Amino acid sequence: MKKISSLIATLVLGLGVQFAALADTVAPDALVKGVTDDVITIVRQDKAIQSGDTRKAVELVETKVLPYFDFAHMTRLAVGKDWKQASADQKAQLTQEFKTLLVRTYSNALTQYRNQQIDFKPLKAKPEDTDVVVRTEVRQAGAKPVQIDYSLDKQGDNWKVYDVMVAGVSLVTNYRDSFGQEVRAGGIDGLIKSLKDKNKQLETTVSAKK
Amino acid sequence: MKNSTPDSTPVRRGALALLLALGLSACAGTGGHPKDPLEPLNRATFSFNETADRYVMRPVAQVYDLAPLPVKVGVGNFFGNLGDFWIGVNNLLQGKFVDGLSDGGRLLINSTIGIFGIFDIATEMGLEKHDEDLGQTLGRWGVGDGPYLVLPLLGPSNLRDTVGLVGDLNVDPIWGVEDIGERNRLTALRFINRRAQLLGADTTADQAALDKYGYMRSFYIQYRRSQVYDGRPPREKDEDDDSGAE
Questions:
Q1: Which one, A28, A142, A199, B131, has least CB within 10 Å?
Q2: Whose CA is closest to B171, among B98, B113, B89?
Q3: B244–chain A Cβ distance below 8 A for any pair
Q4: Distance CA A93, CA A191 (A)
Q5: What are the backbone dihedrals phi and psi of residue B243, each rounded to the nearest 5 degrees, phi first?
Q6: Is the predicted ipTM greater than 0.90, yes or no?
Q7: Cβ distance B159 to B149 under 8 Å?
Q8: A179 and B210 in contact by Cβ < 8 A?
Q9: Is the pLDDT confidence value at B3 over 50?
């Protein structure tokens, strides 16, 4: 009985989020909360993800999270001033590889989720703002709470995440130094190659784990 | 002193060689990180730390991590409580009186009702745990962070935070324990507990980074900046962003 009612609850919650996503202008904080709740509900019930099945976690992230992220913007931020010298094709390749790297890494991090509680801070933004930060806090017994903040900007009617800050550290601009180094050493193509190699290496460790 | 030639003693010669090496590395570093003039030395310390972590610290932390959650939480709370006094002092030094008083309240509540700090009753009562140290206080007072440093075994730091750490240790209740054996055991437990909390985050960093040294350096610099401003650092002008938009 309990199982059935929690299943129904999950379905309803999931549907609710889907409907919310369909609506044209979801407020940025509602968007982040909806996606987070959605993902966490699934991870809580999925024994495979909990036991480290990265492939399943990647699938989950690709269907539930990716539509709300603007990877071109993220890549531009991570590459910094060298972005200007990249051709359109190079930009597309950079974005693709950086996206793969982030998705692999953080899908894997998702498999480590263990019942931490996530608090959503009230949004401090004016209705006309087109660039906001949604602040959340992850609480875990016996450890300091960790701030996770999402930067979003408005594109047409939709809000998209372009940066994630953990404990005040941007997971995007944190790459800027190493990316700059790669570009100085081997140009934009050198950076693309390094990202490809890194992704290949991650791919093999992921499949070795299985 | 005045009339001794620069290479008169081995010590001097060593110092000269070191300076030269530093100078060279600073010059070679036209492409290097402006906050990391000691990069070659730091990288060497970093790889030493990585090896020590892989073969000693991490395996020990993994064994410790098998302990039941309430035990680990109790250990974390116990050391957390010991830190609250100094955290409160630093809040007062930074002029954050409400936070400082709250830290005093935490210490009082957790040391008594919380049984030597094992239970963090204060957080449940709404007195939030803070994180302050002398390095942050110095930063708040306007002291720049200075060159990036990787400390043996302790990991990423900078000149300001290293000075702060020396001050922190001077008033640290565990560092002040008279019995050396006891002090070492407590220090080890505190270290292992902290390392165990980072299990998971460490693999994420391994996977995320193209160059882990650079990734950790960048992380530390941003992290401490955020801490100095209690998680709300003033936005850095980001000239790299708007230029790229098509």
A1: B131
A2: B89
A3: yes
A4: 10
A5: -65, -30
A6: no
A7: yes
A8: yes
A9: no
